[in-house]
Each structure stands twice: as C-alpha cells, then as structure tokens.
Design a protein that fits this description.
152 residues; alpha/beta; 22% helix; 2 domains; GMP Synthetase, Chain A, domain 3
C-alpha cells in the first residue's frame, strides 16, 4: 500500500495549479485554498471563490482534482466550494502580490502602484475591469494603463 501524502505535500502540489485568468499566480498564492484534509487515501480540499460567480472556479476545481489524484497514495479527491468565509484580497500571499506585479496587475492598495514603473501617481480609470475582481488604472508617470486587483 502506498503511503498517503501529508497535508504539506498536497499543498505543495497545489502550488503548481495556476489561476486560469492569471497564469503566473498559483491558487495557493491567490488564497483560494481554504483547507486541505488527508485521511485514509482520501483528500478533501475546500476552495473559496474570489466571488460567488467566478467563471474560473470549475477550471480550478478540475485542475485541483487532476493534480492531487496524481499523488501517490491518493484514492479519492473531493473538492468543495465554500462561500464562508468570504475570500478577501488580504488572503493573497506576498509572493502572490509579486506574481501579480510581474503580470502587469497591481496588487490591492490605495493609491495603486504602477506595476511597470512603481509610481503612485496613478488613478483609477474605470472600476469595471476585464473581471469582476479587477479595475482599470492609468499611470501618470509612465503613461501606461494597467489593471489592479480590487480591495475586497
């Protein structure tokens, strides 16, 4: 019989599961992994969506199942979606914030720092961005538009 992976090993595997909309960001660094439980060949993972209607949630859940099922000793993977506690941008890890910047998205904060030049001489151009959790901003220093994760 194969040894079960530890919770830490499952979480390490989840580091390679990327957010479908921001591929430089793992779901762990995004803070959507609420809990991991390992027992008797079964792994239960609870995910918190960034918002209740997140269109990427199904892709994330499928990727989690696939990644964890591939671990030695795992016989069953259950991925549950939970709305409480509500996901918050405070859950994004420091490495997640750096990944956002490398992708041209400013982490939450006021005023937003331009991910291209670092300037705080920025303004929100539209609270409506390409997804519900992002807004569109403009840098007055380098004159680049960029997105910012909304503070939720």
């Amino acid at each position: 019989m194969k040894a079960m992976p530890s919770e830490a090993e499952v979480r390490a595997a989840l580091q390679s599961v990327r957010d479908p909309e921001i591929p430089v960001l793992s779901i762990v660094d995004l803070g959507v992994v609420e809990s991991v439980a390992v027992a008797d060949g079964r792994v239960k993972i609870v995910l918190l969506p960034t918002f209740s209607g997140c269109p990427a949630l199904g892709f994330m859940a499928d990727a989690v199942r696939h990644k964890v099922q591939a671990l030695d000793g795992v016989t069953d993977v259950d991925v549950a979606i939970q709305l409480d506690p509500v996901w918050s941008t405070r859950r994004i890890t420091p490495s997640g914030r750096l990944a956002l910047q490398s992708f041209g998205i400013a982490p939450p904060g006021e005023p937003p720092a331009c991910p291209y030049c670092g300037s705080h001489e920025t303004q929100v151009a539209s609270v409506f961005g390409p997804t519900r959790c992002r807004s569109v901003c403009y840098c007055q220093s380098c004159h680049n538009p960029f997105e910012q994760m909304k503070t939720l």
